[in-house]
Amino acid sequence: MQRVILLGASNLTLGLPCVLNVLSSGLAEPAEVFAALGHGRSYGIWSQILCRGLPGIMDCGLWPAIRTAEPSSPRPLAVMTDIGNDLLYGIEVPQIIEWVDTCCQRLTKQNASIVLTLLPMESVRRLSAWRYHIAKTLLFPGHKRIDWPEMRRRIDDLNEQLRMLGRHYGARLFEPPSRWYGLDPIHIRRRYRPDAWREILSLCVPEETTFGKCRPTLRFRIRCWTAYPAEWRLCGRSRTTRQPVLTTDRLTLSLY
After folding, report:
1. Whole-prediction pTM
2. Residue 165, class by beta-carbon neighbours within 10 Å (0-12 exposed, 13-18 middle, 19+ buried)?
3. The domain made up of 2-255 is a member of CATH 2.60.40.10
4. Which residues, 6+ apart, have CB-to-CB distance to 103 below 8 Å?
């Protein structure tokens, strides 16, 4: 089994059907996928979108699940993405970097081949103050108000520190191109998701791996988007779900 570890938030959630489709069709061996994702997901604090709450990625059950799982024969593959979310929660850059550093340490102990996606800087540079405030109000309502010049400074700082952190751990760095984004400055447009995830995943697999076109069916997308993680909250009440939540002849998926 080829172990794959996916860490992210809304982009990874929206792209999950494409990711799984790419992995199941391109990898030489069946994939054992461990994923911590979810709209608005934070790397270090509990996050809540509407009435659904999720633990921070750093403290979720993915890590003990990996430690107790059977060792992976091929080198594990890992993707870390959607790291800028925590800026919109008002978290300071040093704290975000500390959380990401902890995740990188744990992945390194697993001998994982890591891809770390940087912030979409080209898209950010095109963003005006009024578009920023609209996007923040719609996507992250009720959180600390930070003006656009200060947020731009934090974005630049976080992106540069992510570069240094990625180089320190020997990760492959990937900066998303501006063409993937539209009026929404942080979410990859639907038309680009298949190509985007094929490009990102190609950075952490052996060179001889060839990924084909990934066009998951509507049924498969619904199965991915309606699966529940191992630990979550509904209106403040704790819920648990047995894992894995998806099993096919080419992969298993466990959500955390």
Report:
1. 0.94
2. middle
3. no
4. 7, 43, 57, 58, 80
